[in-house]
Amino acid sequence: MNILLLNPPRVKGIPLVREDFCSREAEKGTVYPPLSIAYTASVLENCGHKVVVLDANGEGIDWASTIYRIGKSHPDIIGFWSTNFSLRQDAYFLGKIQQDILVVVTEPIISTTWPKDFLELFPRINVAILGESDIIYPYLVSTIEKGGDLENVKGIAFRSRDRNVKVSPPQIITKDLDRIPIPAYHLLPMHAYRGFLRLPFSNFLASRGCPWSCKFCIRSSIPELEMYKPHLLYRTRSVESVIEELEILVHKYGRKEVIFEDSTFNFNLSRVGQICDGLTRSKLELKWCANVRVDNLNRELLEKLKRAGCWCLRLGMEFASERVLNASSKKIVLEQTLNALKLCKKTGIKIHAFCMWGYPGESVNDVLDTAKLVSRYSTYSFSFSSVVPLPGTPFFSECVQNNLILDWDKYLNKAEWAVEALSARKWMDKPVLTTFDENTHLRLRTEIQKTTKLRMGYILPRLFRIRSLTQLRDVINAYLRLKRTPNLY
């Protein structure tokens, strides 16, 4: 069959990360390859199908050009990946595609929790993938090609011939990740991707799932999710396969920078050490960063990471309040966060801090303390997300039970609530929970930006990355806007 796999255009000109395992705005100045699409394309090619990948997000093309190129490809199936805050745009434009093309979506949060509501909200979508696309797609395409019953395909929601929405049992878990072929990088516009260091760049997965159980996170391995989302179980690739693929990325595709997208790169320190040893032996001269927990770092490990090419670690700090950390089941203490920040600074490894604010029971001072902690340690970069209960997590269930979600009862279709709420989280323009009223929420958003961005540790790296007068103007204007904003606390 002819299959087109689509990473839709950007939203408001901002590149996005759309994956099976997460969805988010790409960090400023970066453009990520669509890794889940590349894995799926590789598997489908191995099955003998003709596959075209259209990375509109990576190429920076608009919807008019995207629809034109889809028409030229004459696909039997369009599979697209979406995020909660681009769903409406993506579904609207895909609705303009001719009706005899089957449209399949992968969206990791809303569709997997309320698949029926999801498909009712987006009538042009025929099938939703409820797990790992590269595992489910071969069965889906084979069944369609043979005219079989989609009820036999595990891990999907779909419209039956009578237009009713049905949900099949969960996908079969694939424990041996080495059996999955490497992503089809040859189908991607590899020249388009750039990382934090403005070098030829790719993202990378050395494991899938997550071994931890933070109750606010959609990627957690917890019993409530394992029953119907087995793909969240933690599994690892062999060290040999990791090094082999990295060598291909460097020698064949000229990559000089990589980000490990694993939920917790430092879960098994022995394995991390083996990966570092392999990178050092192979002399790839690859710059890389990874997501790590703060409670499993030490000086010896950090020095080994740095020798192997690690220049930045992305720390899951979340909150500076011990009370809120306990409430969120993060299973870390503030002292471990401080220790990790100090060790990274001593070792010379840059820090990207993941932080949140607006958790139930969090005070204004708690939020400001987190912002001050980021500022005090001059983290290279950071992300501050306003807390939204993600559907399918224990935290979401708690919020519903305790009436903590604003406007929850106004929506009969819960997928519609999620699209609106998660978009609000993205732009942080209004609260989703009852933690703070709207006025306090907006004041805190401004104060967070002032505290974290009006400092040399944040400004200087961005000045060094400027490549045009337009970028310089944008940086100066953003600085002046914040500087002129009066202190609110």
What does this protein look like?
- 40% of the residues lie in helices and 16% in strands.
- With 489 residues, the protein is an alpha/beta fold.
- The protein folds into two domains: 2-167, Response regulator (Rossmann fold, 3-Layer(aba) Sandwich); 177-484, tm_1862 like domain (pyruvate-formate lyase- activating enzyme).
- Strands 4-1-5-6-7-8-9 form a seven-stranded mixed β-sheet, with helices on both faces. A six-stranded parallel β-sheet has the order 10-13-14-15-16-17.
- Strand 8 and strand 9 form a beta hairpin.
- The N and C termini lie far apart (60 Å).
- The model is unreliable at 221-228 (pLDDT under 50).
Any guess at the CATH architecture of the largest domain? Answer: Alpha-Beta Horseshoe
Outline type: globular
Strand percent estimate: 15-25%
Largest sheet: 7 strands, mixed
Domains, number:
2
> Low-confidence stretches at least 5 residues in length (pLDDT < 50)?
221-228
Distance between the termini: 60 Å
Say what oligomer this is.
Answer: single chain
Average pLDDT reading: 89
Rg, please? 22 Å
CATH superfamily of the largest domain: tm_1862 like domain
Fill in the CATH topology of the largest domain: pyruvate-formate lyase- activating enzyme
For the record, the CATH class of the largest domain is Alpha Beta
Computed structural class:
alpha/beta
Q: Number of DSSP strands?
A: 17
Tally the helices. Answer: 19
Question: Spatial order of the strands in the main sheet?
Answer: 4-1-5-6-7-8-9
Query: In percent, how helical is the residue content?
Result: 25-40%
